[in-house]
Amino acid sequence: MRRYFEIIKPKIVLGNLISSVCGLLIAEEYSFNFFRGFYVILSIFLIISSCFILNNFMDRKVDKIMIRTKNRILTKDSSKNNIFFLILSFSFLIIGLLILYKSSNLLSLSISIFGFSTYVLYTVLKKKTFYSIYLGSLSGSTPSMIAYCSISNRIDVRSIIIYITLFLWQIPHFYSISLLFLKDYLRAKIPILPNKIGLFKTKIHIFSYVMVFSILSIIPFFNGYVGIRYLNITIFVNLIWLLTVLQGVIDSSVSLKKWSKKSFMISIISINLFNCMFAIDKNLN
Fold first, then answer.
1. Which of 128, 175, 280, 283 is most buried (most C-beta within 10 Å)?
2. Which segment of the chain is annotated as a signal peptide (predicted)?
């Protein structure tokens, strides 16, 4: 049963739902309704789950090669399973889009379709080019925007800052994953940055993106969107992430696996605190 449940990648879904709930709370000054918020979050859950089920279906041959994914349910070449989950994916998508359309607005619906489409395109292209990560990042940043716009019904400066910040976070987060599971990616012949430019330059890329993410994440304070508690916590956590990454850059003796895992874990803490503190410590204009 657990293997069936894991097809929707529940940990990633949870992270996206946290981002979505925070998006609702950040935008609540416009006009917040609990039941509408519930249906928006339900629709986002269904659409994201649809993405991940389809991703599992499209990646089933590659997943069979990689150690960390070889036991996924769709790697067993069962035609019944493949058809069932493909139908389930599109059922979740259609139901999710219908709920979102009925409970919010066309803007949120359009953003969700954009997010789904770019994720599918990312899944196709990730076997061909490491630049696909940018498509994945565009898609992965949409849940918060969907939730925000479901209430505001407009894309404003605040939502753009949040979206770009989430986009920039995704890149060093994924590069950390690619280093953590480097052998798996090499075994499956998936093009990733370390394959093209080497480990050291990849670490430099991670550090650069974490630096830009850290700078951008404090802009909401200077724009008056959040208070001092947000600023203090954001600077503290991102400084830890920067120093952790810097250690791996300047000290070649550091274990790659331990270092990349640490960067990966801190990245998760960082983005969740960014979302939650933005919602908790926001300034109502």
1. 175
2. none
CA-based nearest residue to 256, from 269, 267, 245: 245
Q: What would the two tokens of residue 230 be? A: 């947000």
Count Cα atoms within 13 angstroms, Cβ side, for 168: 19
Q: Phi/psi class of residue 202: alpha, beta or left (left: φ > 0; alpha: ψ in -120 to 50)? A: alpha
**Confidence tier at 70 by pLDDT (50, 70, 90):** confident
Q: Which of 217, 222, 256 is nearest to 237 (CA)?
A: 217
**pTM of this structure:** 0.92
Residues 6+ apart with CB under 8 A from 41: 17, 20, 21, 24, 147
Which amino acid, 137? S
- Residue 93 amino acid letter: L
How far is residue 227 from each of residues 22, 169, 223, 247, 275, measured CA to CA in Å? 16, 21, 10, 31, 14
pLDDT band of residue 77 (cuts 50, 70, 90) is low
Residue 167 to residue 213: CA distance in whole angstroms: 9
The pLDDT of residue 253 is: 87
Q: Which domains does the chain have, with CATH numbers?
A: 1-155 (1.10.357.140), 156-285 (1.20.120)
Angstrom distance (rounded) from CA 31 to CA 168: 29
